[in-house]
Amino acid sequence: MADSFLKPIENVLDEGLVYVDEQLDNIKLRTVKVLAEGTTAITGLLLVFSILSVLLLSLAFAFVLLLGEMLDSYAKAAFIVAGALLVILIIVMLVHKRLFKNTFVDMYNNIMNPKQKEPTLEARWIKPLKAPASPSRLRETGSRPGYPCCRSITSPGTC
After folding, report:
1. How many domains is the chain partitioned into structurally?
2. 149 near 159, Cβ under 8 Å?
3. Is 116 left (phi over 0), alpha (psi -120 to 50) or beta?
4. What percent of the chain is predicted at pLDDT more than 70?
5. Does 105 share its domain with 146?
């Protein structure tokens, strides 16, 4: 008798533990998804910055060679190019908050808190009911939205 009385309570406890385990698995999956997206974004940015730095180094070397030929001194050309790169560095440091910090914060905010949340199970399977047409809409058109106007048959052009 005691077993049959406690059996529903044990079932509820077992189902509660299964529910908690499923929720933990769901949290783990979401965490892995967010970490994967973040890692992908960081790796992509590192790749882009690496390519840009190699490109900048190549351009700087080309300008040193070009200016060295023009000035007949590669040392003077190297100092001119280094000065230009120093000016670019100072400008980037002055505007780094707008260029990088805000960009990265927005990127991580979009990754961590997506604007379009994943639909719940109920939202995937249960379609929301459409609200009935408002009385003012019915008075304006003489029919419900999506249905042909009944007056158009008798007097075309009134709807």
Report:
1. 2
2. yes
3. beta
4. 64
5. no
